[in-house]
Design goal:
By secondary structure, the protein is an all-alpha fold. The chain contains 14 helices and three strands. A three-stranded antiparallel sheet has the order 1-2-3. A hairpin with a 5-residue loop joins strand 2 and strand 3. Helix 6 packs across helix 7, helix 9 crosses helix 11 and helix 10 packs antiparallel against helix 11. The N and C termini lie close together (10 Å).
Length: 343
């Protein structure tokens, strides 16, 4: 059974409708392999910049590139500067737009720490986040966005990549911090100093966006550390280390949603593993089967974590059939063996 057989033509047609041009562009490129200069794809991308949520996010931007309040931009969640840049990337915003580039400039001026990693701290004008604020989930999300917006060769992005890789492998790290990244293999203070699979997913997404020929040996080793962590348990169970080793995995793992902030879910775990070429690993079989079972009777996936009321503008309705979740699920199913007995 192919992924098209599984999802059906009506679902693909739904994704290709022009009412949500950002999804239409995603489907044309990621599901139908249209060339970047394909006229229909170009038109969809241009339309997406004129439509919500991208339009309202950019309309709320201040002239110097930040979203209120000024400063490092981690707070308030999820309307601060760093979140807007992440969401613009996830929405497929045009990286050549000068407003997007101003946002990149602002983040690169205000969010890196002296050790290179991006720091999560309250928005206080003029203060640089301390090294103890560097954390994998924020760093991974921002580096992925910055690379996607053409900033791979910026020395500050290179420093953030270097920090992430060294922190993950433990190579050449002078000090870990109890209040942030607290040890190798994605150990994190927010996870009681245990390896954090959420942080690993975000950093691997950043590494995955770096063209393979541009990945240093250090980055390749960090990728293996992260992949080993994510495949150390069945991804369908998400039974990764938690602050309380006897507690159950966070329910967020099983609430597929869009956009994605610092938490992650089974779908995003599958996304990054397939993006890194592990789509045919048999250890993904249960997670793929679980993903397939989340479809509704019409063959569509729902948005169970939509951040309604928390973002600058609504993205999708909580609990409703989701074009974004469906499109992303279809992209994963293209890259994995599809369960033959699925409906």
């Amino acid at each position: 059974m192919s992924w098209r057989d599984l999802v059906g033509s009506s679902t693909l047609d739904w994704l290709l409708e022009d009412d949500v041009p950002a999804v239409q562009a995603f489907a044309l490129r990621r599901l139908l392999d249209r060339a970047v200069d394909d006229p229909e794809l170009v038109a969809a991308r241009r339309a997406a910049m004129r439509c919500d949520p991208i339009r309202s996010i950019l309309d709320a931007q201040e002239p110097d590139g930040h979203w209120d309040p000024p400063g490092p931009g981690y707070y308030p969640k999820y309307t601060g500067t760093v979140w807007q840049l992440m969401f613009l990337d996830q929405l497929g915003a045009d990286g050549t737009d000068e407003r997007v580039q101003r946002a990149c400039d602002y983040v690169l001026e205000h969010t890196p720490t002296s050790v290179g990693g991006m720091g999560a701290m309250a928005s206080t004008w003029g203060n640089q986040p301390p090294p103890s604020a560097a954390i994998h989930c924020l760093n991974g999300n921002l580096v992925r966005a910055l690379v996607g917006f053409g900033r791979l060769d910026d020395p500050r992005v290179e420093a953030a990549v270097e920090w992430a890789a060294r922190a993950a492998t433990g190579e050449g790290v002078d000090r870990y911090y109890r209040s942030g990244t607290s040890g190798p293999c994605f150990e994190c203070a927010a996870n009681d100093r245990h390896p954090c699979a959420w942080g690993a997913v975000k950093e691997l997404r950043a590494f995955a966006r770096i063209p393979p020929r541009r990945r240093t040996p250090l980055v390749r080793r960090a990728i293996e550390v992260g992949v080993d962590l994510l495949l150390s348990v069945d991804p369908a169970t998400a039974a990764y280390p938690t602050a309380d080793r006897d507690s159950k995995p966070s329910g967020a793992w099983f609430q597929l949603g869009f956009p994605s902030a610092y938490v992650t879910d089974v779908l995003q775990n599958l996304e990054v593993l397939t993006e890194l070429g592990r789509g045919r690993d048999p250890r993904l079989a249960n997670a793929v089967a679980w993903l397939v079972d989340q479809r509704d009777a019409d063959g569509r996936w729902h948005n169970r974590h939509a951040y309604n009321g928390k973002t600058t503008v609504p993205f999708e309705r909580q609990g409703a059939p989701s074009k974004w979740v469906t499109a992303r699920a279809c992209a994963v199913l293209r890259a994995v063996p599809v369960p033959g007995g699925a409906r």
